[in-house]
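Full entry
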Amino acid sequence: MKIYWLRADKEDYQTFYTPDEAEYEILREFDGRPRSASWVPIRVAVWRHEQVPEGLKPSDFPSLRSSCPVFSTRAAEGLWDLLEPNGEILPLLCDEGEYFVYNVTTLSDALDEERSEISRFPDDGQVMAVYEYVFRSDKVGQAAIFKLTQIPTLWVFVTEEFVQRVQELGLVGFDFTLVWEG
C-alpha cells in the first residue's frame, strides 16, 4: 500500500483564493464534520499577484487551502466513486468555471504514532507536525481519500488507487508526494 499527501501543483497551475475573509474562515473549519446541510456556495477567484507568473494554466485541482481540495467538474465526475463515500462535494462560485470544494469526512486513526516521527504541542500533547509517517494499513481500509484523526483540519491523504485514477483520466494540477509505502 502507498499513501500520498494530496497537494496542488502551484508552480504550473492556477491557485484560488477567497476574496471574502469570512468565507476563508469557513474553510478553516473543515475538520471532518459534514457541512452539506448548511452549505452556501462561497466565491473563489484566481489569485493574481505581481510575483505570480501570468499565464498559469487552468487546473482540475487548483490550490485553495491544503485541507480543502478543490476539483473541476471533470475531476469531480471522474473521481466520483472515490470521493462520494469519503466526503462531500460542495459547489463554489467561480467566474473561471465550475468548481467544487471537497469536505473530507473520512477521518482515519491509521497513523502509527509510536513508529512515526512526530512533534507535539507542549501544552496539550496534540500532534503539531509529522516528519516521517508510518501507517497501519488495516486502519486505512477502503478509503481512497482521508484525513487523520490527529490533525483533521490539515493535510489530505490519498491511496495509490486515487493517484492511478487521476493519471488514467489525464487530470492536471495534482501534486502527489509519497509519504509512506508499506
About this structure: The chain has one domain: 2-181. The chain has a mean pLDDT of 93. Residues 160-169 form the longest helix (10 residues). The chain is about 20% helix and 30% strand.
